[in-house]
């Protein structure tokens, strides 16, 4: 038995229609995941499942999601161990302590090449920083992320399958894992 974290790329099904976490938990349980818990209403889950390849976990969840919600959505998963490694790899600890909402992590399905940092630097303004740690993209937005020129560049087409979370969410998911 292994604990996993799963992140939905989007919880918006159509204009005005969002994924309800209760129904998302029911989807996870219907495909055999146990002790399913969600963190806020943004498509973050912690659950238990039999040991499996992480891509199998993602595929099962994506198939169940499309069946129950009628829309294909990318889902990125990590083992508890993988999530703890992601959390420990924070390259911007000082900024995270000041304002965790301004530090973002694009959690990737396939690891990014560290060379992407140089390509992204041209979009950084006003003290923004980027780093790749263990294949995930970390961003210190230095201010409100919604004003950043980086966000429009972080598309699946350009970056590959991944989903963005802020430091507060990453830390809270780690705390959920630690709580059992």
Quick one: CATH superfamily of the largest domain?
SP0830-like domains
Mean pLDDT value: 93
Determine the oligomeric state from the structure: single chain
CATH topology of the largest domain: Alpha-Beta Plaits
Largest sheet: 4 strands, antiparallel
Strand content: 25-35%
Rg, Å, rounded = 16 Å
**Distance linking N and C termini:** 12 Å
Overview of this structure, please?
With 180 residues, this protein is an alpha+beta fold. The protein folds into two domains: 2-82, SP0830-like domains (Alpha-Beta Plaits); 89-168. The protein is 35% helix and 28% strand. It is built from seven helices and ten strands. The protein has helices at residues 21-30, 54-69, 80-88, 93-98, 116-121, 156-159, 167-178; strands spanning 2-8, 12-14, 17-18, 34-39, 44-49, 75-79, 103-108, 129-133, 136-140, 162-166. It has a four-stranded antiparallel β-sheet with strand order 4-5-1-6, with helices on both faces. A four-stranded antiparallel β-sheet has the order 8-9-7-10. Strand 2 and strand 3 form a beta hairpin. Helix 1 (21-30) packs across helix 2 (54-69). The protein is globular, with a radius of gyration of 16 Å. The protein starts with a strand and ends with a helix. 32% of the residues are buried. The mean pLDDT is 93.
């Amino acid at each position: 038995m292994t604990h996993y974290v799963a992140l939905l790329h989007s919880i918006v099904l159509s204009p005005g229609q969002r994924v309800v976490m209760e129904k998302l938990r029911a989807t996870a349980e219907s495909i055999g995941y146990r002790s399913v818990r969600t963190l806020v209403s943004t498509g973050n889950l912690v659950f238990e499942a039999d040991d499996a390849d992480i891509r199998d976990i993602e595929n099962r969840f994506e198939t169940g999601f499309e069946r129950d919600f009628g829309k294909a959505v990318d889902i990125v998963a990590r083992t508890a161990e993988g999530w703890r490694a992601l959390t420990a790899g924070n390259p911007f600890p000082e900024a995270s302590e000041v304002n965790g909402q301004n530090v973002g992590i694009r959690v990737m399905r396939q690891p990014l090449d560290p060379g992407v940092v140089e390509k992204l630097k041209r979009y950084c303004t006003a003290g923004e920083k980027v780093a790749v740690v263990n294949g995930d993209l970390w961003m210190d937005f230095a201010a409100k992320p919604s004003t950043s020129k980086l966000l429009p560049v972080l598309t699946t087409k350009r970056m590959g399958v991944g989903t963005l979370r802020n430091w507060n969410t990453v830390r809270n998911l780690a705390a959920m894992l630690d709580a059992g």
